[in-house]
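Tokens as discussed.
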């Protein structure tokens, strides 16, 4: 089994598999245009200054009148800048429509008055966002818990302590009370949780086990992707891995990954850039011609999750049922062989 040491750098609250604190209430950002940026487009320069804001997001802010240059509101992203221009960006607080409770089936692994642990289905979006106004896990939780969810995550993310990508299945915990949310959030941030994933990758790496350490940041061109970047441009990212089973013909390998940090798309990037073997079914990072086996989904599953109960302090550990799509890639002894490790 991969090393589960969690004495590692603090996490990133903005990453999908890490702590989510309160939604922003509005933000002002200021900068002065340096001589090297004279003549550069406004949207391009701001994307370089603040890489956490995508260029498309900045273009929307400019068109909506939230950006001023030299004291005057601007509306054209292509406006050329002059050296010394002061630029102000006002990021408005997010507005979220009322979220309706929906009777969406949930697989509950554990539930009490403080929290609920779920086995999230592949394809289920965690919370409402652009393109997914409803039909999310939050809609389902509001119905299942009758609105008894913590409010720390904001009106758009009640109860949500951490996230999983839409196409990732497996263990996820949500908080019913603010006290539970605060405790769980701190455990995620302090690396006190255990997060173990299963994935199936194309090909078989030469090394059976190891540790991938690098820095991840937003891809400089494709803002939907993350990439390995220089230390000063990204965040420390660490994944321990072990090959559990592999194809004798070298077409695929079943890998256990222990997350020590929770960066956006961390396992997906580490498999592709660290091991040079992308996850099967990954439409963002895998090259179609290198997908050695046809699969019906992203082969990434949050298999195990461990944490201290926020009220009792008892150490709790949960395992998600391994999805049917993974069955052809399991060792001959199946789940039983894997669980005795």
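Sequence:
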């Amino acid at each position: 089994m991969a090393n589960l040491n969690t004495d590692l750098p603090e996490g990133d609250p903005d990453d999908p598999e890490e702590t989510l604190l309160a939604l922003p209430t509005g933000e002002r950002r200021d900068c002065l245009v340096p001589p090297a940026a004279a003549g550069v487009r406004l949207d391009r320069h701001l994307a370089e200054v603040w890489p956490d804001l995508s260029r498309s997001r900045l273009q929307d802010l400019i068109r909506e009148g939230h950006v001023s240059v030299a004291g005057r509101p601007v509306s054209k992203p292509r406006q050329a800048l002059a050296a010394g221009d002061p630029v102000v960006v006002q990021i408005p607080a997010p507005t979220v429509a009322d979220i309706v409770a929906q009777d969406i089936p949930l697989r509950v692994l554990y539930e009490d008055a403080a929290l609920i642990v779920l086995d999230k289905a592949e394809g289920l979006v965690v919370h409402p966002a652009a393109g997914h106004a409803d039909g999310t896990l939050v809609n389902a939780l509001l119905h299942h818990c009758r609105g008894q969810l913590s409010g720390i995550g904001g009106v758009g993310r009640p109860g949500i302590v951490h996230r999983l990508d839409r196409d990732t299945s497996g263990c996820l915990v949500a908080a019913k009370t603010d006290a539970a949310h605060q405790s769980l959030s701190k455990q995620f941030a302090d690396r006190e949780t255990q997060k173990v994933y299963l994935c199936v990758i194309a090909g078989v790496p030469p090394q059976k086990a190891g540790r991938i350490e690098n820095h991840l940041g937003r891809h400089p061109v494709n803002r939907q992707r993350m990439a390995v970047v220089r230390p000063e441009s990204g965040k420390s990212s660490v994944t321990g891995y072990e090959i559990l089973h592999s194809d004798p013909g070298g077409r695929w390998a079943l890998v256990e990954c222990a997350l020590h940090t929770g960066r956006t798309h961390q396992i997906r990037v580490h498999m592709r850039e660290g091991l040079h073997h992308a996850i099967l079914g990954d439409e963002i990072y895998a090259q179609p011609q290198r997908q050695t086996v046809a699969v019906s989904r992203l082969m990434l599953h949050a298999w195990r999750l461990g944490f201290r109960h926020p009220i009792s302090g008892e150490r709790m550990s949960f395992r998600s049922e391994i999805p049917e799509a993974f069955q052809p890639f399991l060792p001959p002894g199946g789940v039983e062989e894997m669980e005795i490790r």
